[in-house]
Design goal:
The complex is a heterodimer of chains A (545) and B (320). Chain A has 25 helices and eleven strands. Chain A has 545 residues and is an alpha/beta fold. In chain A, helix 3 links the parallel strand 1 and strand 2. Chain A is globular and about 75 Å long. The N and C termini of chain A lie far apart (62 Å). In chain A, 43% of the residues are buried. Chain B contains 16 helices and no strands. In chain B, helix 7 crosses helix 10, helix 12 packs antiparallel against helix 16 and helix 15 runs antiparallel to helix 16. The radius of gyration of chain B is 26 Å and the shape is flat. The chains are: A alpha/beta (545), B mainly alpha (320).
Chain lengths: 545, 320
């Protein structure tokens, strides 16, 4: 009967995984130690030249077949059929066979030892990345031997960031934003406090920066627009929605203690004062209970239909489509960003964006059949040429550069993008083959983001501040501290929501006290120590004081 | 006390016994060969993987092999014992499962008898179809429906508001105190109809002459159910009970994953969802395996206990 099914499913998973592991046990271990010395020579094909990318030099005639595992089921495995990958195929004379899967499949690869040539995963904090030296080839050595031009197109900060204990870097991420990227102003903000324009104007463009103003605005909305939910936020799920670190960034809560140690931003007075404010708003009936239970889809439905009068919105590009749908159907009522909650003690906002750790991270494995070719792919895709190709296609064929130096899609292509998304995806695949994509390439064109979020991005200018020192600072997986931290995160998730829904100040305070006790009982000191240590290392890597 | 034939068999020499076994096997080879694929399947997919349980005693990460991961002895189990969330999940699993057992086990029997007692005809068919229907929908679908019904603007709140039982709508799923009941009742709604099938099948096999004789003797309907229908179902009820009890600790995963949220977690998290969270989302395979192993051991104990109890009820006849 169905009751037993869940158990069976889990068991089956474990059993299958274990079966594979057992098979592997007999199959022999990893091919260890294949340093620079072990790399095959490419001298018969070309002589390396620091000034020219190797793919232009390589004379290998037969087409190189490579397998590339991407740890995401949704990845489009086509290769060579659309404009982007066809060009890559021609330029590099390669044929890539993509394999996709989830963590279980990834584990199978490692357990079975039958590794693909290239491998892309998403979690930079996972043991796979931490111990990359055991299964991947170092990019430094590959670049030196096959393609020194790589060092011209790769960001030195990013390479440093992913350096392992042996001083070498094994993987390269996409959307890794360095300090230079932040300074250039090319990175758009992705969070905003937004309000429906019609509501905002009807209320006479009120300020909502202080707790009093905020409460007042929400009260007014509730009275004058009873069909709307005055205040909304991203789906909470197992995290904090946009009411955790996102709100903290709005308030400019410090990222470290005065001594440079880890600072528990959740217990910051300024932040707690705002949680109390939101609790008061909830008690006034201006926050729907459903907001605490909605999943991502339910939240998006409400965004699409303009159900919320105001939102603390994280991930505006991800919501761009929903906001656009609402905007197109309701002209003059679109969401606009205004200065929302602000620090009560005068801190400036420190909004976050994708950091130096980036998103997907790609590796060349030790089992790679042609590491020289694999390295050429990295260099090619990272170069301006590759970046433009991935995002906008081929000049003259899919885009042109206008008088302002901005990239513009050709009308026919643009039309397809707007009106026949499926065909556009199949024929062009622009902005989708983003193994090494970066925000700076998005900044080249007006067409990179939907109309609905441009005002929000404009609002965020100058408010971004890198959070590099807080990246990858969690205790390593499998340690007691990591287990304690996951318990603490779960507790905070429950506590925060309970605080926001508490009936009076006394229960708000007692919940907070409870959380503090939980911290004390769950190794918090040790976690802070580890995080402080990792922050110190981060600073060393980035050359910060 | 074993029969004399069995006693005799035990005394025969080994060689003779093997010989007899081979002859028997040859004689029945068509039938035996049908069993062999099943046995091979069991060995490959059920027995060899038992070796994988060793990761419960190791600190295993993705890039280790089973043999290279370092041994940590009983560390994982020690951590489990002091883990508040684990114990929460144990209490919830037991709480929800026993509620489901206490209510959900009896209802299909009652419902089955009620359907059986209905006169043949369209109404019976309609009742059966309606009661089976929810079984065919997955928890993803049913959970989505429940989430909508329990929301502030959903069916239940509107109903309660109309009836004047509450003055302000609240999301019922956020109320941890009600979660066990939500889980139990929604599961019964989903499975009760389906659970009647087995009982209806057994009831259709009951000799109608029993009922005729009872009616001639002047027995009422209730008396007939009590003295004829129920005793005839004793065996199948016991079997069902054993199967249900052994699965007590392993149930509720799909339902929990759909209905759990930050506010009801304390009362909603069950062992399986906890294992899923630790293993799949946190990547702590050793810990998750250790929990799974512990649960399996307790499940076996429950199974044996249930078998013992039911065999006592069935005049020492064991179903298994």
């Amino acid at each position: 009967m169905n009751k037993a099914f869940g158990k069976k499913g889990l068991k089956l998973c474990t059993v299958l995984m274990a079966a594979v592991l057992v098979m592997q046990g007999c199959g022999g271990g990893n091919s260890a130690s294949s340093g620079k010395a072990g790399l095959p020579s490419a001298d018969d094909r070309y002589t390396v030249d620091a000034e020219t990318p190797a793919w232009k030099l390589d004379k290998k005639e037969e087409t190189t077949e490579l397998t590339w595992y991407v740890n995401a089921d949704w990845w489009n495995t086509d290769f060579g059929k659309d404009v982007v990958t066809k060009k890559i195929k021609e330029d590099l004379n390669i044929n890539i066979k993509f394999i996709t899967g989830d963590d279980t499949k990834l584990n199978t690869f490692f357990a079975g030892g039958d590794m693909p040539d290239l491998l892309t995963i998403f979690d930079s904090n996972s043991p796979v990345v931490q111990k990359a030296a055991t299964w991947a080839l170092p990019l430094n050595d590959l670049a030196e031997k096959y393609d020194p031009y790589f060092n011209k197109v790769a960001a030195a900060d990013t390479l440093n960031w992913f350096q392992l204990a042996d001083g070498k870097t094994y993987g390269y991420p996409n959307y890794s934003n360095t300090q230079a990227d932040y300074d250039s102003g090319n990175i758009p903000a992705k969070t905003a406090f937004v309000i429906r324009k019609d509501v905002y104007e009807a209320l006479g463009s009120p300020a909502a920066g202080t707790p009093e103003e905020f409460k007042n605005v929400m009260g007014q909305i509730k009275a004058r627009f009873p069909e709307l939910i005055p205040f909304g936020f991203n789906s909470i799920g197992e995290g904090t929605g946009s009411l955790g670190d996102v709100l903290q960034d709005f308030l400019g809560v410090p990222m470290e203690t005065k001594e440079g140690g880890f600072y528990n931003r959740n217990l910051d007075k300024d932040y707690l004062a705002w949680l109390k404010t939101i609790n008061a708003v909830y008690r006034d009936g201006a926050i729907s209970d459903d907001s605490f239970a909605d999943d991502g889809t339910a939240f998006e439905e409400k965004v699409k239909s303009g159900k919320y009068a105001t939102m603390l919105l994280d991930g505006t590009p991800q919501q761009g489509g929903n906001l656009q749908i609402y905007m197109s159907a309701n002209p003059g009522k679109e969401y606009i960003a205004i200065d929302g909650p602000q620090s009560t003690v005068g801190h400036a906002p420190t909004l976050n964006q994708s950091g130096i750790t980036g998103w997907m991270i790609s590796f060349i494995t030790k089992k790679c059949k042609d590491p020289a070719k694999a390295m050429q792919i990295f260099t090619y895709l990272l170069s301006d040429e590759g970046q433009k190709l991935m995002n906008y296609g081929i000049e003259g064929e899919t885009y042109q550069v206008n008088a302002n130096g901005k990239v513009e899609l050709l009308p026919a292509v643009k039309d397809l993008q707007l009106n026949n998304a499926d065909k556009f995806k199949k024929d062009y695949r622009l902005g989708e083959f983003m193994f090494f994509g970066h925000d700076r390439d998005k900044a080249l064109s007006e067409d990179a983001f939907p109309e609905s979020i441009k005002q929000m991005q404009e609002w965020g200018k100058g408010k971004l501040k890198p959070h590099f020192i807080l990246e990858n600072i969690n205790p390593d997986q499998g340690t007691p501290e990591a287990r304690a931290l996951s318990a603490i995160n779960t507790k905070w998730n429950t506590t925060m929501v309970s605080m926001l829904r508490s009936k009076d100040d006394a229960s708000f305070d007692s919940l907070l006290a409870d959380y503090k006790t939980f911290l004390d009982n769950n190794n918090w000191d040790k976690i802070v120590e580890i995080r402080t240590e990792k922050m110190k290392k981060n600073k060393e890597k980035l050359g910060l004081k | 006390m074993p029969s004399p034939a069995l006693q005799q068999m035990g005394k025969r020499p080994m060689g003779q016994r093997i010989k007899e076994w081979v002859t028997d096997f040859r004689r029945q080879w068509e039938i035996q060969s049908m069993v062999i694929p099943g046995i091979i399947f069991m060995i490959v997919f059920c027995y060899i993987p038992i070796y994988g349980l060793t990761i419960a005693f190791k600190n295993y990460t993705v890039i280790d092999t089973l043999s290279s991961a370092p041994w940590v002895g009983l560390d994982n189990f020690r951590i489990i014992l002091s883990d508040k969330y684990f114990w929460d999940s144990v209490i919830n699993t037991l709480g929800i499962s026993f509620l489901k057992l206490a209510i959900g086990f009896v209802i299909p029997i009652i419902l089955g008898i009620m359907i059986y007692e209905l006169n043949r005809g369209r109404f019976k068919k309609i009742v059966q179809t309606i009661s089976y229907l929810p079984h065919f929908l997955s928890w993803i679908v049913l959970g989505g429906m429940l989430i909508t019904w329990f929301s502030t603007s959903g069916l239940f709140n509107q109903l309660l508001l109309e009836l004047g039982l509450i003055s302000k709508p609240s999301n019922i799923l956020l109320d941890a105190g009600k979660y066990w009941w939500i889980a139990t009742l929604s599961d019964i709604w989903k499975e009760a109809g389906w659970g009647t099938i087995l009982y209806l099948a057994v009831m259709s096999k009951i000799d109608p002459t029993y009922y005729e004789a009872a009616r001639i003797d002047g027995a009422s309907r209730i008396r007939q159910i009590w003295n004829i229908t129920l005793p005839n179902m004793k065996m199948i009820i016991s079997l069902n009970l054993i199967l249900t009890v052994s699965g007590l600790l392993g149930s509720n995963l799909d339902q929990t994953l759909v209905l759990m949220n930050s506010q009801n977690r304390e009362k909603a998290e069950v062992i399986n969802s906890y294992v899923y969270r630790m293993g799949m989302t946190q990547g702590d395979f050793s810990y998750a395996t250790a929990v799974g192993l512990g649960v399996s051991i307790v499940s076996v104990i429950l199974l044996v206990a249930a078998n013992k109890i039911t065999s006592k009820l069935n005049d020492n006849q064991s179903v298994l």
